[in-house]
Amino acid sequence: MEYGIISIAIPLLTIILAIITKDVIVSLIGGIFAGLLVLNGYDPFSAFIALFNGIVELFSEGWITKTLLFALMIGAIIKLLTLSGAVDQFVTYLSTKAEKIDSPKGAMLLAYTIGIVIFIESSITSLVAGTVAKPLCDKNSVSREKLAYICDSTSAPICSLVPLNAWGALLLGLIVTAIDSHVISGDAISLLIASIPYNFYSIFTLLIVLAVILFNYEIGPLKDTVAKPYHGDHTKHEGRPTPLPMLLPILVMVLAVPAGLYLTGKGDILKGSGSTSVYYAVIVTLLFMYLYYVGGKMLTHKNYFKAFYEGLGEMIPVVMILLFALFIGKVIGDLGTAKYLAHLLSGNVSPVLMPMLIFLVAGITAFSTGTSWGTFSIMMPIGLALAASMGLDIPLVIAAVISGGIFGDHASPISDTTIISSMAAGCDHVEHVRTQLPYALTGGAFAALAFLISGWILV
User: How does the record say this protein sits in the membrane (predicted)?
Assistant: First the structure.
């Protein structure tokens, strides 16, 4: 059944409610219920039943359950790093060893550098950058909102520019499918590599966030954000402060992800499961932290589990947001939002405009659904079919889909990467969305212009 303009109205209603009410969970439930009302013939009772049955059905999908458990256990890791004194030891160590790092600009550059270096998985990138840099940012009066923006702006963009990860596996799979179906011809790896220089949104985003750090380039609500007070370390440390209690667990977690991808891919890291890999990575990290912290007498057995349970509890609101964000993505998929948007493009449109329009439609789709991966899966077949029929440059179209997916995901309040970035930085989720949006729109405008120029040159 076709729902037309209603398929766009539902996600827009959810996003507007989230921005106005500043209550993401209530807004998501409202949007989900409105969508289910449409899908169930405007029968309120059926929509009500579908809402609560749908929540249970989400847990039947393994990757969703693993993602939610991953988020819970991340909270435990953050709490353990804090209560063990590892975070404060790390800040003290940096303060004594590197004066340039112990400054507002140095703290932000630390987060930026971590975000660039760790390109294995976007959630891990945001988490590590936020966790490591947050205490140093607090100490140097850098707001949590600015830190969340840095974390969010280096996670998905760098993962898409250096696709030696699950992102690359997904994109290669979509391109291979189009080749096997004889929609396009060529080598998938060569086409993906050729698309990287045209991934304009990711490139512009990394440059813009660097300008924010180096030149204090602040626009919109970010100018008015206030830093959280830093209370320092109340734990007495024997001997000199060391960064190891902070860095070793994070190193274990980062290394466990490619190991998990290798194992789940049966020897091929590009075929591994991202959700399974990060799920087991946090479990391995928690086991390592128990042996390290309890064995090293940084925490007692009792205090370890006290911190563990407190960390799980603090993540429940975040997990609820993730759960309902995934739910509304499913509802929007059932409404056919992406297909309707693609249908609007199928008229008499100049080939010169198509790369820019594909970028914008992918951006709207990702913004509405809150998922870049889902957008890639929907828009890549559409984009490649349009490219083949209209004689467009294939790498440029691939890049337009990738850039659009990341742009919309970056700007969306219901995106899982946006949620995880605000969680890692320890700031209010809606405030993160509100302060980041002007920068995302700036990068999106530059990218749209670049795709327009590229379409004119290459078509």
Answer: Multi-pass membrane protein
For range 164-170, the mean pLDDT = 66
Distance of CA 143 to the CA centre of its chain: 20
Most confident stretch, 115-129, 165-179, 383-397: 383-397
- Among 91-95, 192-196, 337-341, which range has the highest average pLDDT? 192-196
Give the count of domains, the chain: 1
- Written as one string, the DSSP assignment of 31-83 is HHHHHHHHHTTT-HHHHHHHHHHHHHHHTTSHHHHHHHHHHHHHHHHHHHHHH
Measured distance CA(441)–CA(454) in Å, rounded: 20
CA 248 remoteness from chain centre = 24
Rg (C-alpha) for the chain, rounded Å, is 22
The CA distance from 126 to 147, in Å, is 10
Q: CA distances (Å), 130 to each of 82, 101, 126, 242, in order? A: 13, 15, 6, 19
Instruction: Classify burial at 310, counting beta carbons within 10 Å of its beta carbon; exposed 0-12, middle 13-18, buried 19 or more.
Output: middle
Q: Report d(CA 370, CA 299) in Å as an integer.
A: 39
- Predicted confidence band of residue 243 (pLDDT cuts 50, 70, 90): confident
pLDDT per residue as tens digits for the range 3-26: 778 887 887 787 677 657 766 678
Name the pTM for this structure: 0.70
Shortest CA distance to 403 belongs to which of 155, 160, 119, 169? Answer: 160
| Domain assignment of residue 14, yes or no | no
Residue 195 forms part of a structural domain: no
Structure tokens at 3: 């729902």
C-alpha 33/C-alpha 15 separation (Å) is 14
Domain that holds residue 160: 62-169+200-206+237-317
Q: Is residue 260 a part of any domain in this protein?
A: yes
Residue 266: count other Cβ atoms within 10 Å of its Cβ: 8
* 434 part of a folded domain: no
